[in-house]
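Sequence in, structure out.
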Amino acid sequence: MISGGFTQTTGSLRAARFCLGLALLLCFSPVQAQLLQPEGASGFAPHPAAVGRRYMAVTANPHATDAALEILQLGGNALDAAIAAQWVLNIVEPQSSGIGGGAFLLHWDAATRRIQAWDGRETAPRAIAPDFGRRSDGSPAPFFDMLASGKAVGVPGLVATLEAAHRKHGKLKWQRLLAPAIRLADNGFPISQRLFVLLRDDPLLRRDAAAFALYYESTGEPKATGSLLRNPELAAMLRRLASEGSAALHRGDVAESISAAVEMRGGQLSLDELRDYRPREREAVCAGYRRWRVCGMPPPSSGGIAVLQILGILERSGLSPGGPERPEAAHLFAEVGRLAYADRARYVADPDYVVVPSRELLADDYLRQRARLLDPRKARGMALPGQLASSHSQGDGDSLEIPATTHMSIVDQDGNAVALTSSIESVFGSRIQVAGFLLNNQLTDFSLSPGRDGKPVANRAEPGKRPMSSMSPTLVFDAKGRLHAVLGSPGGSRIINYVARSLLALLDGGMDPAAVLALGHVGNRNGVTEVEQGRIGQGLARELALRGHEVQSLDMTSGLHLVVRRDGHWVGAADPRREGSARGE
């Protein structure tokens, strides 16, 4: 059946099946349900692609893209440009990412031909309990009470991660990379329509006095579109980061302010935990897909494994569904999504706490076994995780990953590349502002249930643990090992589907990069089959319903940013659903 908003059944209204399609035992008010929707609105025209012979930068905002170009023109490399762009995004996209959040970063060094995966995911405080998302009687705690509270705040990881990556890969001085953001925070920028709408519609941010003073008039209305927004407090913080590095955040008076603010809002984050945060250097997960090699982020992100599973299962199915907008293609993509998301819920979590069977999940025999479950004519309903040769006695998780994140794709003049996805989790994070930036609420990405059917859930909350994510920064290489594409997206747990479907359109269909990003979204997270409202026609939705899919039409505001090598040039494209831009020379 087909519906808009929540999916209706005879005589009942079921909760929308976020997080892998598992029904959450939560009932949301209309305002709360609105907060779970992606940022933005349906209805858009494709942005024209940009072409550059030497370098290319695609970010979520023209101010950030300009900052990246400024650094590249000075001779900085891709990582330098990404760092400069990230600080600018903290100013112009405060709802999505910044100093108070975390990130996953893939870095390609063209000289050494090496990929480095940087894990800047937030960590849980030592005081966290496995059942932190539950009341004393075992019932789910009101999710939105946790979302905008200190209980959801993890130790921020973005600053320390970018600093560590810069020590290893950077070219220009660290201080120079903060100059564009400091300038913008001091001088201000015109509030965009998108930021105005998000400020207007969020009922929680006004509760924070510092955020209210920065973004709202005394009447409670957000500052008007086009009005100049200055953030001197954040400018001062950026100056401290320039001179002191990550110590400015993780030690001293700012750390004390973070700890106090979190405690005031019901959480615990000690000065020791802030001081002791360390990013992780991990090995990217890579696999072949037809004549390409695709590399993604390893756990605790589920993105790399799930994207590669989707590609691998489709390739081994031997089915030829045709173009991505054909009913056959949409059906198979949704069915493969069920399988990948089922495995994600069972097996993926922080590898420092659980054994993640990455190799088994991507093994040829296993993917062939999963491919045999596909029926080209009929939807199978909710999928079960696959059975692996090794013993993994775990239950299925049920975390709720909310779509508010950002992504950038950058290639420099030497062929180095960065795919960086960063986040503070939901729109405006925990709605706690300190020193001009917002703190994350990433701990809500842990499973809401520590166990299921008598078995522990891999992604259960534990002290010091990093919650699972779906962020999927991705690099693609051709048969000769040359960098071909850089991409990724925001979008909560839908990120996996956004990136995988874009890869299929790009690598199988050879579509123009701008056309790839303008495709209407279709996907399944092991529940209902979601189609993008206003972008997927009723004809395709009906075809899916005839194949047995329960179809839900809704806004699916991705933020895909893509760089592709074409005819000796770099072609950059920004998702038309947001206000991103691509520039190159």
